[in-house]
Write a structure and sequence with these properties.
It is a single chain. With about 375 residues, this protein is an alpha+beta fold. Helices cover about 20% and strands about 35% of the residues. The chain is built from 8 helices and 21 strands. The chain has helices spanning about 1-30, 55-60, 85-90, 120, 255-270, 285-290, 310-315, 335-340, and strands at about 65-75, 95-110, 115, 125-130, 135-140, 140-145, 150-155, 175-180, 190-200, 210-215, 225-230, 235-240, 250-255, 275, 280, 300-305, 320-325, 330, 350-355, 360-370, 370-375. A 7-stranded antiparallel β-sheet has the order 5-4-1-2-3-7-6. The N and C termini lie far apart (about 105 Å).
């Protein structure tokens, strides 16, 4: 036994020295490790993988600004202002005016200093101040607005601006992670995280032209006009609205729609939309069958036609079912509204309608319509 113990003692020191040398080699030259193996030196001290969107925020944050607006409001003249005993009390000019302040957010979209925000953030403002992420501030010039989509365009005159990178909202899917950046409650720039919870939301009564990205990322008062970005820091939409009596529902205008409005406002001073001069509504399958039309037929019912306007001139009548524009089926009234609005005035389009007939199959007609420009504030939307 003493001989065996001495032998083991003799072999232990070389084995221990070899182990120490191997650990040092793997620590200094980790590339020598077999593929898929774990470094025994660093394994106990490694940082677990974590998901972070810090890079996306860093990329987009400098393009998102805080907006502060002020509006002077004339107050009603007191009925005793002309009374001899009280005229000195009620004729004080300072008591006949008050200042209303509002806060919101905006997004720099060009090196020239153009900003996108919500129209309700700056509507009627006498003074607009923009505070940048780097601490600079500047007065903003109002370029134009589009109340029907609740968008406005401002411009600031500063150097070294960082326009945000535009994303592709058409590639977004329900379930995608998104981040909202803005100035909620005036506390300063804040980032919240959520997912795309729905796409192409409309019929909310928030604006005339609705095609919203819905998200559960927290959007609070002051976030309006801020950025909804993807996990790469690209702009997907302009945060536009929240529903106050619900929790976790916010809406953003897709950036492609917003940029179309911006380009029109810069070029024409207004948003130019196509117009046919008719009103439509979606029918249920039961209502379609009552008209003698198969229930699965795509399209919208024409409920009114403006006299001497494009649809009337082309021969479209009240009661027609509008099914296709340029060969593309129309699924909803919102889809038809947006498709017509995207057409340039003067464009000729082919419109397919089904015209119900008494005791007979509906008549199918292909009509050519020359698109006009939609009048501002027209109650006829399509």
């Amino acid at each position: 036994m003493p001989l065996l113990a001495r032998a083991l003692q003799f072999l232990a020191w070389p084995a221990l020295a070899g182990l120490v040398i191997a650990l040092l080699v793997f620590a200094l030259f980790p590339d020598l490790l077999p593929e898929g193996s774990t470094n025994p030196v660093t394994a106990r001290h490694s940082i677990p993988n974590t998901t972070s969107y810090a890079d996306a925020v860093d990329k987009a944050a400098s393009s998102v600004v805080n907006i502060y607006s002020r509006k002077v409001i004339e107050t009603r003249r007191h009925p005793l202002a002309n009374h001899p005993l009280y005229e000195q009390l009620y004729r004080n000019p300072s008591q006949q005016k008050r200042v209303q302040s509002a806060l919101g957010s905006g997004v720099i979209v060009s090196e020239e200093g153009y900003l996108l925000t919500n129209n309700h953030v700056i509507d009627g403002a006498d003074e607009i101040l923009v505070l940048l992420h780097d601490g600079r501030r500047a007065g903003a010039t109002f370029i134009g607005n589009d109340p029907e989509s609740d968008l406005a365009v401002l411009k600031i005159e500063l150097d070294d601006l960082t326009p945000i990178t535009l994303g592709n909202p058409k590639a977004s899917r329900v379930g995608d992670v998104v981040l909202a950046i803005g100035n909620p409650f005036g506390v300063g720039q804040t980032v919240t995280q959520g997912i795309v919870s729905a796409l192409s939301r409309y019929g909310l009564g928030l604006s005339v032209y609705e095609n919203y990205i819905q998200t559960d990322a927290a959007i609070n008062p002051g976030n309006s006009g801020g950025a909804l970005i993807d996990t790469q820091g690209n702009l997907l939409g302009i945060n536009a609205a929240i529903i106050f009596d619900t929790v976790g529902i916010g809406f953003a205008v897709p950036v492609d729609d917003a940029m179309d409005s911006l380009n029109d406002i810069i070029k024409y001073g207004r948003v130019v939309r196509g117009w046919l001069g008719l009103t439509v509504e979606r029918l249920s399958d039961t209502q379609l069958q009552e008209l003698g039309i198969p229930g699965n037929t795509p399209g919208v019912l024409v409920t009114d036609v403006s006299i001497n306007q494009p649809a009337h001139i082309a021969g479209i009548k009240r009661g027609d079912l509008l099914t296709h524009i340029n060969g593309q089926p129309i699924g909803t009234e919102r889809q038809g509204l947006n498709e017509v609005a995207e057409l340039d005035p003067g464009t000729k389009v082919s419109v397919r309608v089904l015209r119900p007939r008494l005791n007979a199959e509906p008549e199918q007609l292909e009509l050519e319509v020359t698109v006009a420009e939609r009048p501002v504030n027209s109650s006829v939307r399509t």
